[in-house]
Records
---
Amino acid sequence: MNKRVKIFDTTLRDGEQTPGVNLNIKEKIMIAKQLEELNVDVIEAGFPRASKADFEAVKAIAQEIRKPEIAALCRAVKEDIDCAWKALEDAENPRIHTFIATSDIHMKHKLHMTKEEVIKRAVEMVTYAKGYCNNIEFSAEDAYRSDPDFLCELFTKVIKAGAVVLNIPDTVGYALPMDYGKFIKYIIENTEGIENVEVSVHCHDDLGMAVANSLAGIMSGASQVECAINGLGERAGNASLEEIVMTLKTRKNYLNMDTDINTKQIYRTSKLVSSLCGIDIPPNKAVVGKNAFAHESGIHQHGVLQEKSTYEIITPESVGINNHSNIVLGKHSGRHAFDSYLKDIGIVLNKEELDEAFEKFKRVTDKKKQITSKDIEAIVNSKKYFTETYKLKSFQVNSGNNMICTSAIEIRQGDKSLTEVAIGDGSIDSAFKAVERTIGMNINLKDYSIRSVTDGKDALGEVTVKIKDNDKILVGKSISQDIMEASINAYINAINKMIDDKH
Ligand code: KIV
Ligand code: ZN
């Protein structure tokens, strides 16, 4: 019988600590719903004491998501634990996740605490958290660089205080797989009572070892792995959920382990997270990258045509990539056909989302004859999770190589119509300046990128714009066959998000 490994997803907590990522509450709920479809065991929804927005997001997720356990992170500090519980109290399966650093470097330079003080605090805070619920996870931050015997003593005591999950992170991504495996084994063999609790691994990717280290950890006896979609996370990120899950599935017979993940939802989840976070998936990324199933060389193509298993160890279908490029939806496709096509490619929408996506789909079919699964994905992922304070009504851009570019923009704000013109260095610059003049704001543009959703001259263009407001990055996206329209809408979307974020 295979050992079942628990998947603890931290996309919404450690993943959201990725530089430049700032999700609003609606986006976090969307991701949490998709993680529920993926069937993860635990969703770490955030760090409630970090900000009011984090608190509200954890609370909303705890109220809405029923199947997975919902975890909230907190330092080993009473006020943090109180706040985490307030956010979690409506959850069906709440988990308080409390942590304190245990390495000499962290205790000396960050906490200014002795080993004895750290043990005392950890025990007191686990006991305190236990007053709220039974499900307490305790993490020893920077565990891998900590004295192993000190860790065993600390863990023995927090188990006695009531912790039911012990997490042993490689916080700075310093470990090598064999050593991390040995480290986990040592802790398991030398901690009293550890056989009655769950042992968890949490590895960062600073040296590109996060997935390998996590696997070494579970091969040495850990039964929970903490990971994030697309490997998002602090600095170089966390272990990638999709890589861990697909390794366990593909090498099930060798490892004798598996998870409960619905792997057919992997691709959809990866796309949604990438789109909402504004972080592209590298083409060569394992499992979910654009090239993960592309065979370029003639020898490989020939082999795959004869027999897929020559060069394919996992099928695209097993992660939810359905190559429907030959099945086409178009102008005459109705709502029903659209809905069943979505279901076919693993996208589940509620009625309101379906209505909105169908309306967009119809608009796209006015101009584009054949719509493929990639277009549909882009249409669904362009859903707006914010209030549209400003809406583009019309625009006109004049550009050329020997002239000054000018743009005229008309924007609606409620029932008011606002119009302005501007000149700029190129069409995008003039259009963005015209938007700023129209709404009377100066915007700090940090990034602009465009990609075509599919091949062909009539492909949809997807524009991503990032703007900066104080220390926050806001991402705006839009798709259209007209790249100027997509650019202006993406800019306005980012501005709307910024306004929404302030409320
Ligand atoms: O990397 C780490 O140590 C963490 C802990 C807070 C679990 O994210
Ligand atoms: Zn971490």
---
Amino acid sequence: MPDYDPNNIFAKIIRGELPCHKIYEDDRALVFLDIMPRAPGHALVIPKSPARNLLDVNPDDLAHVAKVAQRVARAGMKVFQADGVTVQQFNENAGGQVVFHLHVHVIPRKEGVPMKPPASEKEKPEVLADQAKKLAEAMQSV
Ligand code: AMP
């Protein structure tokens, strides 16, 4: 497996070199909206420590990411009046991974509404800003 690349796009977001629509942050994790959501409220949960994916992440960081992902799923259910949540996580090119910093997709789902294909459409920044604000508020009570 290749080494971790500190110049991947999510590492730049962690360092504040690129913007994101932030939902939640603590000392070990960051959550923001996917810019090409597969459904409204599609969030990404990442560890702040450098990890390429599930294969090399520190287990304690992985456990923390899972705990935060649970809260993000609950917040998404609430904000989007969702009927369910899809959680996805891809590893290496063959596993469908495109950005090589570990991330967990948390996608609120409505009954009978299919997800859009990956990377099919960029959401408007104002829509993402509004959704991130609502999700950030909901994170405080889940
Ligand atoms: P994957 O590595 O296959 O799990 O997919 C990477 C995900 O990152 C895709 O869903 C992209 O839409 C998303 N993505 C790529 N660049 C950004 C960005 N700058 N901000 C938020 N999400 C992004």
